């Protein structure tokens, strides 16, 4: 697999139509040439990316709940936010800002869990996910973004897993963060029993 020719299936852009340019993302429709000579089209969303953090305090994960219009429902997630222009090079600074705005905590250390593309078939959005269990409460935290209404809760690992079953937690970044937290928990148990 390491010697795979990644250019073999490259799709050359023949034409691009601008569909929408907004505050958060940009949408285009491309006409592409396929490797077999045929033409097709691709509808693409370009996004600066996002950042998220799994904050654990006193053996409980801090989650924020909010209504997600695209889903037409209220769900709980780890604190997260979009990367502003220029922040792609420093997602750690962005995640620390989001953590403070959404929870009132600062992280004293960060471990990168992963960085992933959620839907690479049509979107360039890359999300950086971090973990921290060394948190400090801020006396006067930065305010939340305008129009952002959040409900903050703290849950145990078993409560978080139950919330996944009930689809109260339904987004990929939060589910990945909870799996990571569970792996860290199991790792500690193995070390303690060794």
UniProtKB/TrEMBL annotation:
Q: Name one GO cellular component term.
A: cytosol
- Swiss-Prot/TrEMBL keywords: Hydrolase
**Nudix hydrolase domain span:** 46-182
Q: NAD among the record's keywords?
A: no
Q: Name one Pfam family in it.
A: NUDIX
Per the entry, which co-factors are needed?
A: Mg(2+)
GO terms assigned for molecular function: hydrolase activity
Q: Does Isomerase appear among the keywords?
A: no
InterPro entries from the entry? Answer: Nudix_hydrolase (IPR020476), NUDIX_hydrolase-like_dom_sf (IPR015797), NUDIX_hydrolase_dom (IPR000086)
Q: What's the protein here called? A: Nudix hydrolase domain-containing protein
Q: Give me the gene this protein comes from.
A: ytfB
């Amino acid at each position: 697999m390491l010697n795979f020719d990644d250019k073999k299936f490259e799709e050359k852009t023949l034409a691009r139509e601008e569909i929408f340019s907004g505050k958060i993302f940009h949408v285009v429709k491309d006409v592409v040439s396929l490797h077999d000579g045929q033409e097709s089209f691709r509808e693409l969303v370009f996004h600066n990316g996002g950042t998220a953090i799994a904050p654990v305090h006193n053996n409980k994960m801090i989650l924020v709940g909010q209504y997600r219009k695209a889903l037409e429902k209220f769900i709980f997630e780890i604190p997260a936010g979009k990367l502003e222009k220029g922040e792609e090079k420093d997602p750690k600074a962005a995640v620390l800002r989001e953590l403070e705005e959404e929870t009132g905590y600062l992280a004293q250390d960060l471990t990168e869990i992963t960085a992933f593309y959620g839907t690479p078939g049509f979107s360039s959005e890359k999300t950086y996910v971090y973990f921290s269990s060394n948190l400090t409460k801020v006396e006067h935290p930065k305010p939340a973004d305008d129009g952002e209404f959040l409900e903050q809760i703290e849950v145990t690992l078993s409560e978080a897993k139950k919330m996944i079953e009930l689809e109260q937690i339904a987004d990929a970044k939060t589910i990945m963060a909870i799996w990571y937290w569970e792996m860290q928990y199991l790792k500690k148990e193995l070390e303690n029993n060794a």
